[in-house]
């Protein structure tokens, strides 16, 4: 009988740190080994705990893993076997993905958003790569997501995903975003790379009409109509990227983007632009609680700078014939006309004029978004 026991504290590898580690063997009919990690940081992202248990008549016949963080928790179960213990990496592990469940608190903290595997899916792992048969997930509070992958050395690498009425709520909560979205996504993504060739891919996701709001506010900021997100990848470049979202009451967001060379991955320079037209400034000023009774159209013409992983925007923005009121103090600014620039350092500077009562004035506004 093989027995393994160990522990450690304050471990670090590169940008990964582990506060506490415990390795132990469990007594019983099956060989079982358990690894418990606590106070983990992966690239600055904290994970409260991670436990992995491997058991069976032979090692790795059953594998269970659980992870918990402030953003949610995940559970994984595998069942299968190593094909050749004399050469385990070459022979690989084959079996099935039995359980995968990811959950996090909804933005309103009154319910959970969950993605859970609906039935077991074939899975193989080894030195040559990974193959996952069709794995379909129920995505509460509604929708269905299916994934299929073949990622083996020397062969074509493929990844397919299809979405039907999927809410982005879980992804937002796991990313720690303060926004709530009621829109649903339907469509598919197909990615493929032949040996020795650049990858090709295409994606089309239809975005249903819905509302955008803040996590701590029951009132939505604004409503959107049915929109579209799509892109094409060919010859090592991303082209025809498009995001069009119309806004209720007029206007919308029209985004076109491209990446001429994807060789640098997320560090690849991104090109393109965004045109934003708001029929009314009021949704933006809802972010400033004391400001009420505001109106006026907003237009912004922006160009992308930076990289695919950290895109930046720069360009111009304007407000024409605006009106801003603060009822508590009686302040009323009308005939407000502002124009200015947006730079890639997350800062917008606007200058212009306004009318207040019998007088006129000038105004300079600087808005920083880096916080």
Could you walk me through the main structural features you see in this protein, from its secondary elements to its overall organization?
The longest helix is centred in the middle third of the chain and has 6 residues, at about 170-175. The termini are far apart. The protein is mainly β. β19 (about 235-245) and β20 form a beta hairpin. It is elongated, with a radius of gyration of 26 Å. It is built from 3 helices and 27 strands.
Count, helices: 3
Encode the helix/strand succession as letters. Answer: EEEEEEHEEEEEEHEEEEEEEEEHEEEEEE
Shape: elongated
How would you classify the quaternary structure?
Answer: single chain
Share of helix, binned: under 10%
Largest sheet: 24 strands, antiparallel
Radius of gyration: 26 Å
Strand content: over 45%
Question: Ends: how far apart?
Answer: 56 Å
Report the structural category.
Answer: mainly beta
The average pLDDT value, as a whole number, equals 85
Report the strand count: 27
Low-confidence stretches: 107-111
